[in-house]
Fold HelD family protein.
Amino acid sequence: MEEERAYLGAARAALARMLDLARHRVATGEQVAGDRYTAETLGRMLRGHAKELAEEPDGPLYFGRLRFGDGATAGDHGGQTYYIGRRHIADEAGEPMVIDWRAPVSRTFYRASARDPMGVAVRRRYGWREGILTGFEDERLSQGQEGTSRIVAEEIERPRVGPMRDIVATIQPEQDDLVRAGLDGSVCVQGAPGTGKTAVGLHRAAYLLYTNRRRLKREGVLVIGPNPAFLRYISAVLPALGEVDVAQRTLDQLLARRPVSTTDTDAAAIVKHDARMAAVLARALYARLGEPAGPLTVAEDSARWRVSEHALGRLIDEVWQESLPYGIGRERLRSRVVGLLRRQAEARGYAPGAAWVQRMGRSRPVRDLLDRVWPAVRPQEVVSALLRDPSEAADGILTPAEQEAITRRTTRWSAADLVLLDEVAGLINHPETYGHIIVDEAQDLSPMECRALARRSVHGSLTVLGDLAQGTAPWAATNWSQQLTHLGKPDARLVALTAGFRVPGAVLALANRLLATLDVDVPPTRAVRGEGSVRVRRSDDLPAATAAAVREALAYEGSVGVLTREPFVSDSDRVTVLPPAMAKGLEFDHVVLVEPADLVPRLLYVALTRAVSRLDIVHRRPLPPAIHPAP
Ligand SMILES: Nc1ncnc2c1ncn2[C@@H]1O[C@H](COP(=O)(O)OP(=O)(O)OP(=O)(O)O)[C@@H](O)[C@H]1O
């Protein structure tokens, strides 16, 4: 232990020195660089580096150590010792003191086992409490020794307070496989509640940024979560891993090109989110194309250039066949028309240059022609016109009742309208794309929402995270292959996670019984945590029973989530009150679930599986049969 304390002291000193150096570079770097652009870029880069280093918590600098043996399987690592931590730390000579958990050799830390030691003689795990090293555990893998780790178990059982934490110290082999999947392929993780989908997605973002830093700095990484509360909950994980440059948004935020000031009826929202709307919108947009009203004539000085109506018709057809975005098609048509004019000019002995081409393109007759046959258009014009009278674009695609459902009498936009606007914007021009998008709770995305993400990842890859059993939107996916097709990645690798790190055995037994009634094809979860407890209380006075349950819950350590549709107030900052539908993706040590009979089975499944240690069910009406506690 003495030796370990000395190493820790040296690593702390090395990190402090790295931080000083980075700060010094921030202070002086701008003066040493040549031109202003280089200076600015360098300054930004150095500030980023200093910030990353400074965000390193005072706490654990490393969580594990690998000591390789001398055998052939150790390869280049024979006889070496490596400390594995959240970030790379080097000594004054540049020799690594702590290796980043994402480096290739760190993979061995997560994957080696007694059955396949991968050259490792001893794997050591460190225990920390409040930044202080408390001890370590060794597994002599090469001697076939591999135990259930007390340190890992304690980490998993630790009470939950505040936002989500990283799991770098305890990533499991099947999770590691997903975290380290290459950037070029897309993956889809079907994971039961608490199996670590969100954790895997966030660690994967950090891993991809590490292995493809330059490319992803340029192309961007985006995390999509179901609601702002969820984004707040996960917001600290990537910065804790040293990654501060990842956009984290809800889909509504991503698509917010107009303020939302009205809501749809359920019937309207269902139609607007249906995949058929893509065809309706494309038809509505392209219905704007017109026929030429005659030949095109452009006069300049004494010359007159002319393109016949027939030739114009042929050009329009040709451009149309190229299937370009609408806005690009318009410009392509302009340049083709001018190209014809130019060839005529050349044939008559003129030598038209770039200025001539530009003048012709902007000339009145060419503009008039384009406005007639391929008019410029904004998404809101197309969607407004469609919603005023859907018949022309929707006949044969939507039923009369569906058309009636989306016909609107106001000029305000709903959340679903934003998805439609985005679809049209995507038909008109290429949207900004990302190198990698991680999308959580993906089972709840509608086909039209999936398309919005597909457009933004045409050149990139996706990590799709979700659980078909937790789908509660009216359009929730019932199978992944269809959802992945809507997301533009039908070939994504589908992997199921089934080891549950959140929900304790007693709660899981209840949840798995409910799962059997949900009519979805997903494997049940097995609990990695302890038993936990489930308590059911019936009362005619729900508010009083809820208050009593919360009072008792506060006697324990950790967070309390009250999942209820009724108003409830608590003055403790450990208590969060929210409707069950908003609890997706969140977790609380103690959950007080009020009146489960109010919830549809899938939402009930979501609500039950938020509990980390204890679940209190408070009810007045009879319990849904599937969750009667076992006799
Ligand atoms: N390998 C691990 N070691 C320790 N804790 C873990 C591990 N994997 C997951 N966890 C913890 O389990 C809890 C659930 O993880 P997470 O929220 O990622 O699950 P999820 O599959 O997204 O759940 P849900 O479907 O309910 O949203 C989190 O507290 C997470 O930190």
Observations:
- The mean pLDDT is 90.
